[in-house]
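We emphasize that the prediction below concerns an isolated chain of 462 residues; any contacts that depend on oligomerization or on bound cofactors are therefore not represented. The input was used exactly as deposited, without trimming of termini.
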Amino acid sequence: MEPAKTNGESHAVSGGGFYHYLYRGQELLETGSNREARELFEDALALMPDHPEALAGLALSSFKLEDFLPASEAYAKLIELTPQQATLHVNLGIVQLKQGFLEAAEASFERASELGGDTPKIQNYLGLIYSKRGEYARALDAFRRSGSAKMAKQMETLLDRHRNSAQGEQAERDVEIMVNREVTEAQAAPAPSSSVPPVAAETLLAEPPPPPEPAAAPVPAEPDPDAERRRTLMKLGQRSTAAQPLSEALALPNLKSDAPRLRMPSDNGDTFSLAGPGLLRARLESRLCAKVHGIAIVRGDLAAAEPLYKKFKGRKTNVLFGETSKPIHKLDGSGEIVWNSGRDLFHRLVLDGDKIFLNERVLFAFSSSLAWENGRITSGDLEGVHLVNFTGKGEVILRTEGPMTIIEVTGDVPLKVRADRLLGWRGRIAPRMEVAPESAAFAAGTPVLHMQGEGNLFIGAA
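Result of the prediction step, given as a token string:
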């Protein structure tokens, strides 16, 4: 199915309109202002009814408000647009489970499993459905497949006790509490390849929350010895005139700070530059490709066209390139952009005719001059690592939660790397994925990559 067409090919990055509603809604959603965020996503969808980011925001904000009908409708619409996204089927299944539609939820989780979704998490949800229907033997099998020994043991106990009705009822209540805790833990650390932020599962079988602790008495603030000096400086600034600029009154040229300083415009001739910790700067003369989430400053006439879709073997697919809620866009025009990543770090790679493979999870931006194609390393039922293969001359930007290390690979003995640590590689390296056995140095069940050949590995934090 071709991606749904939207109203308008290009929309301004700054100012009002669709993107104003979308970005403001995402900011409010991150701060917990779910009702206000949903209103903004609804305003955005009134302008572009099929936009995936706005639909994802509407779905998540509605779920957090426990308004499950619009959440399920939004996830169903997203599935129409990108039917191969396993995470969307998982999220729809969670909403259906909250609504009590067990059969529909079961079908959604089974479809997610067929698409290669997070199998342990899906089996946990299926085990929950089976236990709610009283199918304890099926639930036991599902929890065993999920690797949840604790839940499997609870099911075995339930089956044993169910012969005694009184003990069986108490065991069922115990299982409801255990299932909720197990599913919550599974959702607390979503797989890096998730395309939509997984919705919270805390309230699937939640117990009443404990009463809040009484607020501590406020601690009196210590006297500020610089307060009077600052008030004097403020008065100087208020009295400043055209003949005495504010910067001279405050002696700002002598201001000392470890914060990075930016000049707009930049005299750096590169497309991308790292302006400081967590700051990325880009200069546009025609086009580049990047995520628009996190833009802090825009200078010039820039526009974000439609999001990119993945390419396999030279053919465009209907699957968004990057996360569904934060995909990569084409940016057109001329000017400058500054992104602020918060605590994350940006890394700049310069390609000079190289062939490089990078983890799609950490890919943030790249030059439009580069040729690219999507792929995946996988084995059996493993979700695998989603990759992007770049060739040509240009720049690539990665965004990670910690520092990146480059390791040289030589010789015939492969390096074993945890799959969630791999950021990418360069050179003639052949990867092979497996699950760590019981006797391995890695924890049993950990996806591990065997990397063998000649080249460089890019490794990051988990």
